[in-house]
Amino acid sequence: MSPGGHVRMCSSMAMKRITGLACKAAFVLLMVTWSPGHMGICLMAQDTGTLRLLIDPGSDFQFVVDRKFRLQQREITLSAGPHHFSFWAPTRSIVDTTLTVIPERTTDFVLRLPYSAEYLEHRRVLDAFIQKRRWARTWPVMLNVAGITWGVISYDKYRKAHRQLETDLANYEDNVVPAEIAVLTNETIPEHKQDFRQARDMAVISASFTALSAGYTWWRFKRTGQWEKPVFDDRERIRFEGLAYLPGAQGGHWATAITIPLAR
């Protein structure tokens, strides 16, 4: 090999080595300049805060966070920044809001869920139904009470009239004065017999009326007990449960809800 060829080969190897070193230096410089920002982004993504949810009603409210995860708890830890929440409870309206999570801090959020329009209308219809059924049951009861009162009074009059007639008959048997016997026979006993018959008839009528009113009251209670009670259709719940992710021990699942009225 000539000296010139040896020199050209050495120059080519030197250029490859220089090129390799330059690439390594550029890669190291890129990592140095990019890594701090990337690490900052990772740290920022890992910053979290806690929200303490003070919701009325506090027993059975639920919420969907970031339009994905459906939960039921009083505190939640999330990454820092804004998060969308949808709060709901039975008979209440859905409230949508955005809450900002502050890093390394617990923030209280207070909310009173308003009653839904459907529930307020249901309460109005239910109150009217209860009032109607109460009145339908009250006046037969009042009629029955009146019959019982009438029966007690009639029986008392019957008992007194019967006692008076027995007294008259006893006086008739024991009396020896002709004038008094004549008065008892022609006036007193016939008059008291008439009172006794009237009292007896009134007692029978009042007892029959009481029995009929008691039977009607029983029938009325049974009939009104078969009236169809208004049922609350919670449409806000259907909206809330339309589509949500339910986290669980096995990873969670997507769920949807539908209401099918089966009552006729």
Folded structure, characterized:
The structure is a single chain. The chain has 264 residues and is of the alpha+beta class. Helices cover 59% and strands 19% of the residues. It is built from four helices and nine strands. The strands form three sheets. The chain has a four-stranded antiparallel sheet. A three-stranded mixed sheet has the order 4-1-7, with no helix packed on it. Strand 5 (81-88) and strand 6 form a beta hairpin. Helix 2 (117-174) packs antiparallel against helix 3.
Q: Topology of this protein?
A:
Blueprint (H helix, E strand, L loop, with lengths): L2 H44 L1 E9 L5 E4 L3 E3 L3 E5 L1 E8 L6 E7 L4 E7 L4 H58 L3 H48 L9 H6 L3 E3 L6 E3 L9
Parallel strand pairs: 1-7
Antiparallel strand pairs: 1-4, 2-3, 2-5, 5-6, 8-9
**Class based on secondary structure composition and strand pairing:** alpha+beta
Shape by Cα distribution: rod-shaped
Cα separation of the termini: 107 Å
Overall mean pLDDT stands at 79
N-to-C order of helices and strands: HEEEEEEEHHHEE
Structural features:
264 residues; 59% helix; 9 strands; rod-shaped; 4-stranded antiparallel sheet; disordered N terminus; alpha+beta; 3-stranded mixed sheet
Summed up:
The chain has 264 residues and is an alpha+beta fold. The protein has four helices and nine strands; from the N terminus they run αβββββββαααββ. Strands 3-2-5-6 form a four-stranded antiparallel beta sheet. A three-stranded mixed beta sheet has the order 4-1-7, with no helix packed on it. A two-stranded antiparallel sheet has the order 8-9.
